[in-house]
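ugh ok so i messed up the first submission bc i forgot one of the chains. this is the corrected input, ALL of the components this time, i swear. 1051 residues overall. if the numbers dont match what u have on ur side tell me asap before i send this to the collaborators (the ones from the other lab, u know who)
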Amino acid sequence: MLEKKKISRRDFLRVSGVAAASGVLAACGAEATPEEEVKEEMPAEEAEEEQPEAPAEEPEEVSIFFWDGPPLIGIREEAMQPFDEAYPGCKMNFTSNPGGPAGGYNDKLFTMLAAGDAPDVFIIEYTELAGLLSKDQLLDLKPMIEADGYDLSQFPEMMIEAYTHEGGIYGLPDNLAAIAIFYNQDMFEEAGAMLPTDKWDDEGWTVDDFFNSCEKLTKTDASGKTTQWGYDVTTWDKVWQTWVRIFGGQMVDDPFYPTECTLNEKEAVEGLQFLFDLRWEYGFAPKPEAMADMGSTELLLSGKLGMLNNGSWAFNNFRDTDFTVSLGHYPTGPGGRSNYVYYYPLVVPKTTKSPQCAFNMMKYFEGPAMEKIIKDGGLQGTTFDAQEKWFETDPVQPNPKYVFTDAVKHFLAPDPILTNWNEILNVMQAQLDLLNIGEERDAKVVCDEIVRQVNPLIAEGQWRTQ
Amino acid sequence: MTRIVQYFRSYKNEDTITGWLMVSPWIIGFLVFFLGPMIASLVLSFMEWDLISPPEFVGINNYLEMFVVDPLAMHSLKITMIFAFFSIPINIVIGLAIAMLLNTKIKGLAIFRTIYYLPAVLAGVAVALLWRWIFSSEFGLLNLGLSLIGIEGPAWLSDKATALPSFVIMRIWGVGAMMVIYLAGLQSIPTEFYEAAEIDGANWLQRTFKITLPLLTPTIFFQLIVGLIFAMQIFTEPLMMTNGGPANATLFYILYLYRQAFQYFNMGYASALAWLFFLVVLLLTLFTFRSARSWVYYEGAQEGES
Amino acid sequence: MRLGIRFRDLISKTFIYGALIAGSFFIIMPLIWMISTSLKLKSHVFRFPPEFIPNPVVWSNYPEALTILPFDKYLINTLIIVIISVTGEVLMSAVVAYAFSRLKWKGRDILFIIVIATMMLPGQVTLIPIFILYRQIGWLDTFFPLTVPSWFGNAFYIFLLRQYFMTISKDMDEAAVIDGASKFGVFWRITLPMAKPALGAVAIFSFQFHWNDFFRPLIFLFDKNKYTLALGLRFFQGGYGTDWPYLMAASLVVMLPVILIFFFAQRYFIQGVVLTGYK
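and heres the new structure output, hopefully the right one now
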């Protein structure tokens, strides 16, 4: 019995020795790899078959990487299924990742990028585009667009400009989703408040009108406790940006080439002051919640909130209510009318082995696949055509949906193109939190502090030469 | 043959050989899966790496930056340590108390134990989202409950003063997870001790402090070390619930590290932060180990051990 | 005298039950809300004041949530991973822990500190090197990264078991050695059986961790047919919002096995239950 144990232990030791040695070797390889990565060419992550050398009968395999979640679980994949048939020279490998950008997608994508293993097509939040461009990681799509005669006028101009860098075009959109005001129409009528307009050019819905409506909608009971609020004030950055622009202010001097933060200028300060005063000065808005979008949907659905800010991806939440939920634009102010539109790009890494197939996938996505994505997935869609045909025409509330499509057409406020915009945003949010929770009531103080902290960061994040 | 066996069996040699052999699986795992990445991260801490371009050597810049230039690094460390300072002892005391209560002969013991264990099972995102809703100042369960007894609840996660305590409360809710370990520890106390004590006329207080607690010290020691490590590493909950806000009041250290690594792409700086964290926790742990000699009692200990 | 004892009995029993029930209430509230949410229409989830009894009761949330994604496949994948991992972790952690507790050898205590130290380095900075390592050895998109490391012991459990082993008296060990058993034999035949409660605790923890682990499957798996239950649950929460009723319904169902395992396993923690009415 003793002998048997001895032998097996010795074998065990031998095997362990080999494993340890290979482990150490692998570790050395791992350390060396980051430095060699950019020079080596890495095969697409999911390639199960060998990439063909000669012009092939074998279709080229291309991988596409998305995040997935409500309201369209599995829908994008279904919509892209017919791709292989439509383009016989290409074979799609679709990876669907749960959780959204903050819920794990970014962790996985960036780990893969760090390991040199990028998918052939992937979606990113717009804030990541500058970083990837500055490191020259992305493939210029312009040659293929031109060779194909692909019509870019089906997308908003500002979006194309946002994806352009030094004459090349580096992305196509995943979903052009505007934000707007969702409101409880029954509550407005009952309170005799002016309705938000659904026409972009309508000058008749101004900041003052908005204020008056808030006042009429806000109701308190006998004990002074508010039972109904007019509007949801939030630190959602897209919303406070919009209010800054409504009052004529801007976050930075030029989004395409920012050099300084202009948030402490008179107009921007006025906009922020107005927004947060709605809550702390006039009590039109409920108390702040932990995270920007939490709770407003629920308050509106319970009949306690008159207006909230949300985007076209959320309209599924409002389908079956006992009252009419409608859509309207933000009011006009000294700076005119404003909005925000999300425009996350699909990009292709430079290291892809099948650029044409990658581009084909994107074309298919923007084309035939878009119908299902809009109809079944409930998203706003990308091309003007698709939005008009399938998104606008959905009769289920909230309506009218052309509020969203108009907002996209008038899209004029891209995020500043800086490699560290994420960091700058966090700095801004940390300061604006003080306004949001009412600890600081003077917007000028907060904005001055923001500018003080952000200006040096802007200098760091600016990689372009004019 | 007998001489070999005798040599092997001689106390010291058998212990040594068997000891190393039995530890070898861990050593191999460590060498293969951990040592490489650990060294890689240490090397990276002296570099700047944005995940894509080749890393650049910057010497001790990262370490200087976290102490001198970047106020958020030390701020997040402070926040985390304050949290740990309160959360750990509270959870040890409550966890122990509950385990002791759940170690008595009562009806429905299995059900009670399962109920208290449930939070552990719920781990993750659903819990964080749940609690975000519970802590909602306008319409969360907590303030609703308080209003029933006439108290107006604070803004919890939206108030700089109560945001951090909110996380302590949330951790208390999850205390049942570690209860399992106390229960296991309580099993190891021979019932004869209690019987003897009862015969001697000892009351509950005496039995707890003279028998239960002393014999539980190995378990408590475990909970202390592990509790320290896990409290300092709090990450998912603040990420999902407050994202560090309001105004960085809940910017825990690991959350900040994660931001630097995966949102700002300062992997080198994040690695330096990781190693600072490692050293801090290691020092605290060593200190606890040292102290253990004076208060931890092992029935089966060998001479001079801690 | 007898009256006095019974009275004290009653008081302490009341106290115990009272405390436990009050605590249970605190613990259970979120769960009751989960159950209630799982049966609601999406637009009714956050009605205020909170509705505990949904109206209407949407039973179909359960079958819908569990079929919108292939949870049956996820279940099988998760079972495979969990069974392999838990077995490995319990077994190997015990082996290693024994070496740290009952055997005396040079370097033992220093190595033990190193073991514990491995729990201290934040995983965020070792993620990329580990990913690269697994890629080098071709383990990406397989179950290996999720199972193999467990067979080398786990610092947390090693620590736990080491503490427990050190509370066991060494009399029986010594007797066995005199009878001719090897040290390993003592471990296998004497120490392990006596450590059942701790082993049970490790098994429970390990099961629960691997069952709920979503991060490692997220990073290391790509083929959606290989996804696990925890990863599947993540789909209900995305960049555009959370589908609360489905998330809660599916979470509750996924939670059940772990609860059941605990419910039945906790019997092993009965032996030391104090027999008298008050502590």
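quick check: Residues 203 and 332 of chain A are 7 Å apart (CA to CA). that seems consistent at least. Residues 2-37 of chain A form the longest helix (36 residues).
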